Amino acid sequence: MIKLSNTSKMNIKGKRVRSWSLEAGISCPMSKDVEVCKTCYALKGMYRFPVVKAVRQHNRDDYKTHDFVDRMIAACSKLDMVRLFDSGDCETKELALKLEEVITKTPNISWWFPTRMDKSASVNSVLSRIALLPNVALRPSADNIGLDKPERAGVNSYVIRQSDIPMAIAKGINICPVTLPGSTQKSCNTC
Predict the structure, then answer these.
(1) Long-range contacts for 51-56 (Cβ within 8 Å, ≥24 apart)?
(2) Distance CA 37, CA 56 (A)
(3) DSSP-assigned letters across all residues of 145-171
(4) Which DSSP symbol is given to 82?
(5) What is the pTM of this model?
(6) I need a labelling partner for 12 at 20 to 30 A (CA). Which of 2, 4, 6, 190 fits?
(7) Which pLDDT score, from 0 to 100, does residue 51 have?
(8) Reading across the β-sheet that carries 81-84, which strands appear in turn?
(9) Residue 83 belongs to what H/E stretch?
(10) Residue 72 and residue 4: Cα distance in Å, rounded?
(11) Contact 159, 150 (CB under 8 A)
(12) Using one digit for the tens of pLDDT, what is the confidence trace for 96-107?
């Protein structure tokens, strides 16, 4: 059985949105020595609960089955949007190939696909094709915290410290309103 989750920030009015994830850390081969990963939100809070970890471990075992693609397509068929990896990452080329097939066969679903696996040549060979699909926003994730450190080529996102906000605004960088000090916005609803 495909296990999809409700992600509170992805509560978008009028849209049916779910996420599909793996457990952070164990499914993140490109997280070693990465500044952002040392303070990963998906290794804290509710993500540490056994029931939450069990769903992600189930997904890790489940994607290796022969009928995963068909079951994932069926499970997502009535959704408007799916976020991949609110925790964890696309750990293998096998998973990337299966997700490519799912995304290709679900053209009416919008897919949000943050990843750090663009740094893996074998996985990136598939991710580069996925990024060209019209129904996916594949976003290489930032490695560093702060605007004062260079990111690798292809990264168009930043993890911004509160002290970086004036510089980010001056540079025209779009800042997630959920993260702004004093913001009452708690979800991606307006974006």
Answers:
(1) 53/23, 55/3, 55/5, 55/21, 56/21, 56/22, 56/23, 56/27, 56/87, 56/88
(2) 18
(3) BSTTSPPPTT----B--GGGHHHHHHT
(4) E
(5) 0.86
(6) 2
(7) 94
(8) 17-20, 81-84, 110-115, 136-140
(9) strand 81-84
(10) 9
(11) no
(12) 999 999 999 999
pLDDT of residue 9: 66
112 pairs with which residues across the strands? 83, 137
How long a stretch of residues is the chain?
191
Tally the C-alpha atoms within 13 A of residue 109's C-alpha that lie toward its C-beta: 26
Q: How far apart are CA 52 and CA 63, in angstroms?
A: 17
111-161 pLDDT per residue, tens: 999 999 999 999 999 999 999 999 999 999 888 888 888 887 777 777 777
The pLDDT of 31-48, averaged and rounded, is: 88
Please count the other Cβ atoms lying within 10 Å of the Cβ belonging to residue 16: 12
